[in-house]
Amino acid sequence: MKSVADTWSLGDGSVNTERYSPSLAGTLLVNDGTAVHDVAELVARYGSPLEIFIPDTLSTRVRAVRDAFDAEIRAAGYRGSFAYHYPMKVNQRKEFVMTAVRAGANLETSSRNELALLKRAFDDGTLPNSVRVLCNGPKTEAYLALALEMHREGRSVTPIIESEEELRALETYDGPVGVRADMKLKISSHWDKKHNRFGLPEDQLLSLPAIPNLTIVSYHISSQIESLDEVVKPVEHIVQVYAALHKRNPGLTTVNIGGGAGIPYKKKPLYSIEELAAGVVHACASAAKANAVEQPNIICEWGRFMAAPAQLTVFKIIGAKRIVDAPAKAWYIIDGSFITDLPDTWSIHQRWHFVPVNGLGSAGQTPVWFAGSSCDSDDEYVPDEGAIMMPPLSDSALYVAALDTGAYQDSLSSRHCLLSHPRRIALAGGHVSEHDAPDTPVSIGALFGW
Q1: CA separation (Å) from 238 to 17, 243, 361?
Q2: CB atoms within 10 A of CB 250
Q3: Do 211 and 249 contact (CB within 8 A), yes or no?
Q4: What are phi and psi of 268, to 5 degrees?
């Protein structure tokens, strides 16, 4: 017979639930790295919907990736170095960004506005000068001008060339630059794009004359890659591109393998951090040898992989509606919205791992689907595999938690139906800090001119 922890896949590091466990009272516990918190008690104190950030999860993962690559580089006698860059777009909240930086991350921006916030943080001393910044995304004149300004102030800011226009615009840039390759390679993943809009086509890139100050060649080939082999395959290919470019650009030192590492949202193991590091380092080493080129430095920009497990979102079940002739017997209606609070649910059909916050040991569970509180037919969660087993509703309030919500959900969230965003708290060192209170009708209305 399965234990309560096994039933809900709790306490398993291979699926990123090592910080979660059931209490003897059947409530969900979470460890912040120093102390254990009862999520039911937190929601009783702070209300719902509630976002709970665990900074130690993010910092531990950043350190684990750095340590795994450094260990693999030493063990393999690899002659390049490794650096991790946290992509701000995955979660731009200051507490996320600074947690990653304090754990040793560098940064990556996708817009002029992100870079402007970093400039202010450098200027006021919040960011140490040692942090290196890569600039991805389309480069407006203002974006490039700010990058140049920061470079001339002594900051390490490297624009990554995405197009012919950017190539021309950066001809006189006197700092280091990178270039993104649109490689002639496809892999199996959740990526559903027939054409990759990122970077210069590989053939065109390899036919270019020398690019002044070129130091990095990068790619972005997919997102949420669930097979280790499919992570490694493009690494081997980018080193071939690196070798060809190196002949005309001897200052080229680094390959940036971008993002894409997957999260086990369905709580089935994918691969470990150590397996990722070993696969990437060995692929770079073998490809460099095969192409007779110096072993390059390695950069990665894994965002979802780092940030998603660092947050959970809690909802109260505020009602139920019977369903006829379906795998689920009832809609459980949450006091939030999938469209506003977990927008990847309807935009890319993201699957979540839902765990009861109370009633973990309840008998006679009910197969359910979830519905949000907006009046929109897309505001629902219906999993591919039929139904979600949840405790039956009783006189006591039932709360449920969606795990792995730290990536993209905050930056993409909206105010559909003028619903409030969740209250946000963080758990660190045994303490609870509040980061955002819920909206009021007046504050939400003000966003729309009321």
Answers
A1: 33, 9, 50
A2: 11
A3: yes
A4: -120, 125
Percent of the chain with pLDDT over 90: 83
How far apart, in whole angstroms, are the C-alpha atoms of residue 276 and residue 427? 29
- Measured CA to CA, the distance from residue 117 to residue 103 in angstroms comes to 20
Which of 379-385's residues contact partners 24+ apart within 8 Å by CB, and which partners? Answer: 379/337, 379/338, 379/339, 379/346, 379/416, 380/331, 380/338, 381/338, 381/345, 381/352, 381/354, 382/328, 383/351, 384/351
Q: How many CB atoms lie within 10 A of CB 94?
A: 12
Both tokens of 435, joined, read: 């980061």
The widest CA-to-CA distance across the chain, in whole angstroms, is 73
Tens-digit pLDDT profile for residues 400-433: 999 999 999 988 888 888 888 899 999 999 999 9
Residue 313 backbone phi and psi in degrees, to 5: -125, 130
310: buried, middle or exposed (CB in 10 Å: 19+, 13-18, 0-12)?
A: buried
* Cα distance between residue 108 and residue 131, in whole Å: 10
The neighbouring-strand residues paired with 52 are 312, 425
Calculate mean pLDDT across residues 289-296: 97
How many other C-beta atoms lie within 10 A of the C-beta of residue 11? Answer: 17
In whole angstroms, what is the distance from residue 403 CA to residue 405 CA?
A: 6
pLDDT tens digits along 383-401: 988 899 999 998 789 999 9
Residue indicated by tokens 């009021």? 440
> What's residue 414's pLDDT?
81
